[in-house]
Amino acid sequence: MPTLYDLPSLYDAVVTPGPCEPFYRRLACSTGGPILELACGTGRLTIPLALDGHEVVGLDASYPMIRAARAKADKSRAKVEFVVGDMRRFDLGRSFSMVIVSCNSLAHLTANEDIVECLSRIARHLVPGGLLAFDVVNPNMRDLAQCGNTAERSNTKPDRSFVSGSKELIAYDPVQQVQILKWRFEELGRKIPPVALMRLRAFFPQEMPLRLALVGLELAARYGDFSGGHFTGCSPNQIYVARAARTSRISSLNAHAST
Ligand SMILES: C[S@@+](CC[C@H](N)C(=O)[O-])C[C@H]1O[C@@H](n2cnc3c(N)ncnc32)[C@H](O)[C@@H]1O
To answer: Does the structure's ipTM exceed the value 0.85?
Structure first.
């Protein structure tokens, strides 16, 4: 059975540009490039960042998503380097002013080791003082406790056909903090063949600052929505901006050695 990420045109039909785009674009203007977007999907954010004039690399584990991203970038004449890769294991051999992981994509890393591995690699790919910016969902305990709970998304495509997607919570494991979700799609009232179940990690608000500190990133800001609203227990999102140390570990070790 295909996953949602084997079907990029379905993904694009249901996951349309949202308020995260102006948020990350504004932040990118403050750092400049080069920018690395992990789990970039079909380039929903990567391409606008490149069109803003930044040097951008987009990495995603799904070949169909990257192929669709390349086609969209060519069509809009955006210059982006797209790479098929795993955000837990990448080594691009260069550093970036900013790394972005948008749209709750870190939640695909359901095991603790994977999250540690990914954040460590991000820290190693940042220039001194560089930024990591990402958003994850702010889990709602009431929703997680209700299997069968469903969230809907819909969109009218440019050809006027109507696509809708519903995401149902099948199970939640409160020990692993992992949700199992079933997506169902319809186009013009016709059911689209099912896609594989999706497993997503729920990150609770006290976890992320600790995880960032463990890889040497300093929390610079946490917002509750993409207009920069204060983070509260009821916020829909947890949006983090974290900074790498201004001196690299190697140069600060050298500085200590020479004193
Ligand atoms: C919710 S989509 C977000 C895509 C894009 N950031 C956006 O805003 O539209 C999640 C993306 O994460 C990618 N992904 C999942 N696990 C991954 C991994 N281990 N390494 C890299 N990409 C991964 C999927 O292929 C998918 O494109």
So the answer is: yes
